[in-house]
Design brief:
Elements lengths: L18 E7 L2 E2 L9 E2 L3 E7 L3 H10 L3 E7 L8 E2 L41 E10 L9 E7 L12 E5 L13 E4 L13 E7 L2 E3 L6 E3 L1 H8 L5 E8 L12 E7 L4 H11 L1 H6 L8 E8 L8 H10 L4 E7 L13 H7 L1 H8 L4 E7 L3 H14 L5 H10 L3 E5 L1
Parallel strand pairs: 15-16, 15-18, 16-17, 18-19
Antiparallel strand pairs: 1-4, 1-5, 2-3, 5-6, 7-8, 7-14, 8-11, 9-10, 9-14, 12-13
């Protein structure tokens, strides 16, 4: 539990004798589970800080994942001395000035409270594999695994839609450390066990034929991850990315378009929205909007997380819509293979109606090039309203409602 008793002795100057009340949210309770836990607390915490310790206190709050909502002079009216933006609390080593009161906070930066690069390539976090489970049903093509890592020994935190870097062990052909590979996080910020102790990935083993040699090649990092065993060490960097973050609005419309392991961030979204345990620990985020997942795969056994997705659909039929595009089993209107762009075309009018609403966010994740077919389908729908889709999509992008992460 974060200890608010940090007042100490006030300095002798008028400024240093002042006491300030901090309102902070997002702190982590490190006392849980006999000192091994790191559960993020809900709601605001209030405590008093002497002026001379303000910057030191800010650094401590940052280390516990907190965000300062406001600071006011002790004994002043409820209106804060200044309101903090969504900027993360200060982490510099500068000391507070000795004569003047704190100045107004800087203008808010978009998603400034989102953690990034807590661990860097030159100093990665070393966690351990907790579990490694296959995701394909019998007859599935390739190898796809759900891999979970224990991060309780460090300070790694993340939001849904972010990625982490993985450094595979060993050296490359030039004797250098392998390069970092980025993977979208497939778990919510609380982890699959809802205890802030784990992070999970959805990984497909990369296999391809070398055009020059004709030999079968396996991806270095994906092979390592797909074969990792519980207890094995893992080097993690990050988190990174702010492009795929969910809106805070629990009444938003969230349209998700995924192919293959592009489902990873959307699993995190859907678990946060609909899983009972998640809803219990997020009283300030109770999703009441519409989530629509259009998911493209090769065969039915390749539908990742199928049982859990369909369980959500059954439990929340008014809030979650699930549409599959199974290319090797289903046919499109022309009799060809059913790809994700064909499903978008089938539902283009409804999708176009939804994207015109200010609360709608569109997310695309998967193989590069999938955007082209999606754009074509929505172009045909938008033209019926005398709207040029490319221009409207640009407007959505500027408004932070159009999110793409392809590879």
């Amino acid at each position: 539990m974060y200890n608010p008793s940090l007042s100490g002795n006030a300095g002798s100057t008028s400024a240093n004798s002042r006491m300030y009340v901090y309102e902070v949210t997002g702190l982590q309770d490190r006392s849980a589970d006999s000192g091994n836990g790191k559960i993020r607390l809900s709601g605001s915490q209030f405590f008093t800080v002497p002026y001379r310790r303000m910057n030191q206190e800010m650094r401590r709050i940052a280390s516990l994942g907190g965000k300062i909502l406001n600071i006011r002079l002790l004994g002043a009216a409820a209106e804060p001395t200044f309101v903090a933006s969504s900027e993360p609390v200060a982490t510099s080593t500068e000391t507070a000035p000795t004569e003047t009161a704190p100045t107004a906070a800087p203008a808010a930066k978009k998603h400034a409270d989102v953690p990034v690069n807590i661990y860097r390539p030159n100093a990665p976090f070393v966690g351990k594999c907790v579990s490694n489970d296959g995701l394909l049903a019998e007859g599935g093509i390739g190898m796809v695994q759900h891999v979970k890592f224990d991060i309780s020994a460090g300070d790694l935190s993340y939001f849904e839609g972010q990625s982490i870097g993985i450094i595979p062990p060993g050296k490359d052909s030039k004797g250098k450390n392998h390069k970092i590979r980025l993977y979208s996080i497939a778990s919510t910020r609380h982890g699959d066990n809802i205890d802030d102790k784990t992070v999970s990935l959805c990984v497909r083993k990369l296999e391809y034929k070398d055009e020059k040699t004709g030999k079968e090649v396996e991806g270095t990092c994906s092979t390592f991850l797909c074969n990792i065993k519980p207890g094995d060490d893992i080097q993690i960097t990050g988190p990174t990315g702010k492009e795929m973050l969910l809106p805070d609005d629990p009444e938003a419309t969230v349209i998700m378009m995924a192919t293959g392991t592009g489902i990873a961030p959307f699993r995190a979204y859907l678990w946060r929205m609909f899983k009972d345990n998640e809803r219990n620990v997020n009283p300030d985020y109770q999703f009441k909007g519409l989530a629509w997942l259009v998911f493209g795969v090769a065969t039915t056994p390749n539908i990742l997380y199928k049982g859990e997705l369909e369980e959500i659909q059954e439990k929340y039929p008014d809030n979650f819509k699930l549409t599959y595009a199974v290319s090797r089993e289903q046919k499109n209107a022309e009799g060809g293979k059913m790809y994700i762009q064909d499903r978008i075309a089938e539902n283009a009018d409804e999708l176009w109606s939804l994207v015109q609403q200010e609360k709608t966010h569109v997310y695309i994740c998967g193989l590069k090039g999938m955007e082209t077919g999606i754009d074509a389908a929505l172009t045909n729908a938008a033209i019926k309203s005398d709207v040029k889709w490319s221009e409207y999509r640009s407007q959505m992008k500027r408004a932070g409602r159009w999110h793409v992460e392809t590879y």
